Amino acid sequence: MTALSYSYYPGCSLHASASEYDISTREVCSALGIALEEIPDWICCGATPAHNVDELLSLSLSAKNLELAEQMEGNRDMAVACASCFSRLKFAQHIMEKSEDKRKLVEKAIDAPVSLDRKVKHLLEILARDFGLEKLASFVKKPLSDLTVACYYGCLLTRPADVPNLDCPEAPTIMESIMKVIGAETVPWTHRLECCGANFTLSRPPVVQQLSNAVLDSAKAAGADCIVVACPLCHGNLDIRQKEIEGIYSTDYGLPIFYLTQLVGLALGISFEKLGLDALIVSPQKLLKQKKLI
Amino acid sequence: MKKKKMLISQQTMDVDMVRKVEKLSGTSVRRCFQCGKCSAGCPMATFMEHPPNRIVRLLQLGQWQRILAGRSIWYCVSCETCTTRCPNQVDLASIMDALRKLSWDQDGPSKESYVQLANKLFLQNIRTYGRQYEMRLAAVFNVKSGQFLKDMMLGPKLLSKGKLKVFHQKNRNIAEVEKIFSRIEEMRRKGEAL
Questions:
Q1: Which candidate in A55, A157, A259 is best for mutational testing of the B interface (most B CBs within 10 A)?
Q2: Is residue B6 a part of any domain in this protein?
């Protein structure tokens, strides 16, 4: 089998508030021999605000990124780590495939032909399917035994059914299957597909406090030591706002929120610092020491 | 909230606008038989004066002014649960997008200003920088919404963890981004796009 190689679209968050997701993604892929080449001068996908008020703009921004990836050498699929970027790029492909009219408008807006051949893939499917669970198991040096994890999918990794095509929208298992391979125990829980409040974190934080509290509460009640996510916005809401949520609801969760790649990295034997684990607001030090993982 | 009696009459019907919503969203509001699954699964329904299924009902009755006058559409978080679960393939998340676009274009009577402000600043940032500039987005939002101290307690912590980037990377595609924005504006002026 030839080595896996992808064009890589990190997205804005991974270059700022979620840089540890970017760092750990690169570390994990390099340890597994998966080549990632960042798309030169990629632009913002528009995220939720663009499609919220201007579909044509949203499609055009994504189409521009698809075009930039197209111009790279090697005819590679596109790897995306952020759930929101992943969703927008998949939506753009889906909508332009369905509607010739919209596709023509987008081509006019970006002044270039739109190609839909390039596959957009989330890290989850790259790890679980392209690379493969069995092979991943053979790379595990330090199984995360004794660590109980709540896998949080949130909204955009799986919904709606016919767009991301990553897993079942109501009962996905892909994240759990990766966690099992790296030796962690996963818990069944109620809120793994519920919304955290997403970008209301800027405009209306009380919405996020209420919804994210329900997520944290459910994970804690299920007996999880921590939550694992694959989305920078979910991470920000559950990690950065956790302390204030604890204050508002007079409770104490103390749940470290890990990026998927940070836990995979730990199991591959990559160091705490190299995975950006010190950048988490809810410190994972105590938990990881207690489980003898650092 | 004060409950007002809902009046529906020929005068308040606007079928043209409903057709526009259907065209923009690529979905038919007439397929809905009001089972209420969308509202049952909606994480934001408790924040809305009209839950999602009622938004569709109002559209079926042509009462789009009533929808735009409220804040429900701006409280949709685009989680796609409604679209995923609808038994009749009504793509409600796209309907919400279309309603917000029409409301946005009108600069209409919506009561929800914070979400609109956040969206506006987010798009302005893309146009100016090519990528999102999170620190600036948060700072300008606080100034423009008059909430100078909002989330101030988070600032130092985020800075010390390297989560707030004060300086922004230059992007060589900024000129291209500006062209995309201006081409779309031009297409709309000429009536080629909605």
A1: A55
A2: no
